[in-house]
Amino acid sequence: MKAKRCPLAILLILSFLSISTAAATRKTQTRKPCKSMVFYFHDIIYNGRNAKNATSAIVGSPQWGNKTILAGQNHFGDLVVFDDPITLDNNLHSNPVGRAQGFYLYDKKEIFTAWLGFSFVFNSTRHKGSINFAGADPLMNKTRDISVIGGTGDFFMARGVATLMTDAFEGEVYFRLRTDIKLYECW
Amino acid sequence: MKAKRCPLAILLILSFLSISTAAATRKTQTRKPCKSMVFYFHDIIYNGRNAKNATSAIVGSPQWGNKTILAGQNHFGDLVVFDDPITLDNNLHSNPVGRAQGFYLYDKKEIFTAWLGFSFVFNSTRHKGSINFAGADPLMNKTRDISVIGGTGDFFMARGVATLMTDAFEGEVYFRLRTDIKLYECW
Amino acid sequence: MKAKRCPLAILLILSFLSISTAAATRKTQTRKPCKSMVFYFHDIIYNGRNAKNATSAIVGSPQWGNKTILAGQNHFGDLVVFDDPITLDNNLHSNPVGRAQGFYLYDKKEIFTAWLGFSFVFNSTRHKGSINFAGADPLMNKTRDISVIGGTGDFFMARGVATLMTDAFEGEVYFRLRTDIKLYECW
Q1: How far is A167 from A131, CA to CA, in rounded Å?
Q2: Which of A60, A86, B2, B25 could bridge to B60 as Cys pair (CB 3.0-4.6 Å)?
Q3: Is the pLDDT of residue B32 over 50?
């Protein structure tokens, strides 16, 4: 009766395997994103003479700084609020698909580094909802990773990582960031 | 020997099914909150004459702003720190059940929008612990969703979405936000 | 033919069990961290006379404050940007293993409380990557919990809780925080 070899023992082992697999799902997950997107956003900082075009402004600065010129010491302590257009390509004049809104602050005296807290806000036929970001931006590195800490609407409960790349930097007034978003938790 | 029909193949299929189910658990989750709560919080901004009652203060502003009057251009660039009472109903004078603490910043020149980073801090018999929030608040919309990015104590490791509604707005000194919190990850 | 006792019914039950286990994994999780770490970080605030040693600076303040002295009313409204060395022990002069970068803001008039948004940034053989934090810090309490809201590199997609303890506090210029990080989601 070979069929006896399909015993409870095997079932239990199988069951155990299934359970283990379930429990380990998160840990052994291959790092394959459930959603990938690439966007660009464009920041034009207010310098006292570009009120019309500016998309951001210095709102906090250290004792040695002011509100129209980024401070000495690698802008340490400058806090900038922004409402930047998001585009699908690297052209400032392309049709914006959303807005990047929030703040960055320069946080190191010796080199340029920043800390970011912001959202991508979409309200188009393509995307509705927001993606929320936070993290350190050592902006002299070619690529830097920050966290996707949450999302709403189309991006409900999203989590992931966004890789930032400085795509252009002109004087101290304009920069453009390429943002490669990879979501690893999608609902 | 019909028993041979309980073969390894079936076990493997079953095993595969179990694994797939485990892996898909998160994705097929119905969007049913594991915890829902409604709170109100009340913000009285310092205007130079209400030091005693004020629960918030402008601490950063653009070049064209100051610390006692919200700036022109839809308050773009104003950064406000707050410690606001949380109540269970919409009455400012109800017994506070906690404090909403953190900041908001106005981040658009053309209309009122804000970005929020704050916590609900509870220390009562009812709730102990904190809920941390971040996200964009396009405050002219009737409802806006921000992210619950974490929690501690009773709200250990919480994630979810909070829907904000402006419940009252009086001049530029007082506003009240209704906050519908829905947690989708509870530990 | 006893082998018939290995029927579909049992398989289905088993399958159901596996599925249930998978679905419940998150909720029944014991609160056992997948990673625990202890670090110290050291904050020396700029006071107008310590430019060389300072690791942080006041960049926002309420109307009654300034940029070199923490404001009255328990520093309510002071916003501080920092780039603090992280060490493995409580010695400021130990070899830093990373930098704590971000901001804190004092947010209560009656007692000292703060709100924190920052990252631990590592770039050594030991650790590469960042851990992102946010949360309320009622700093008069012996221990306070904030959220680990994300991570990158070695800390890819991390979530957890960090317990802060004030390990030293000297005048209003230096403080040292012990940070016990417990991650409950590791990838």
Answers
A1: 21
A2: A60
A3: yes
pLDDT score at A11? 54
Q: Minimal CA–CA distance to C23: which of B25, A67, A166, B29?
A: B25
Global ipTM: 0.86
Give Dmax over CA atoms of chain C in angstroms: 92
The answer, yes or no, to whether residue B8 has pLDDT greater than 50, is yes
Instruction: List CB contacts (< 8 A) between A187 and chain B.
Output: 26-27, 29, 31, 184
Identify the three-state secondary structure at position A78. coil
Specify burial of residue C156 (Cβ count, 10 A radius: 0-12, 13-18, 19+): middle
CB atoms under 10 Å from CB of A31, counted, come to 10
Phi, psi of C25 (to 5 degrees): -45, -50
- Please give the Cα distance from B184 to B29 (Å, whole number): 10
Backbone phi and psi for residue C130, each to the nearest 5 degrees, phi listed first:
-140, 155
pLDDT exceeds cutoff 60 at C22: no
Over residues A105-132, the pLDDT tens digits come to 999 999 999 999 999 999 988 999 999 9
With helix as H, strand as E and coil as C, how does C51-101 read?
CCCCCEEEEECCCCCCCCCCCCCCCCCCEEEEEEEEECCCCCCCCCCEEEE
As a whole number of angstroms, the distance between CA A155 and CA A162 comes to: 14
Average pLDDT value for residue range C177-186: 98
- A64-87 per-position pLDDT tens digit: 999 999 999 999 999 999 999 999
Residues B69 and B83: their CA atoms lie apart, in Å, by: 19
Burial class (CB in 10 A: 0-12, 13-18, 19+), C12: exposed
Contacts of residue A135, defined as CB under 8 A and 6 or more positions apart, other chains included, come to A115, A116, A145, A146, A147, C119, C130, C132, C150, C152
Q: How far apart are CA B75 and CA B71, in angstroms?
A: 4
List A residues 130-149 in contact with B (Cβ-Cβ < 8 A): 130, 132, 134, 149
Determine, for residues A77 and C59 on separate chains, whether the beta-carbon distance falls below 8 Å. yes
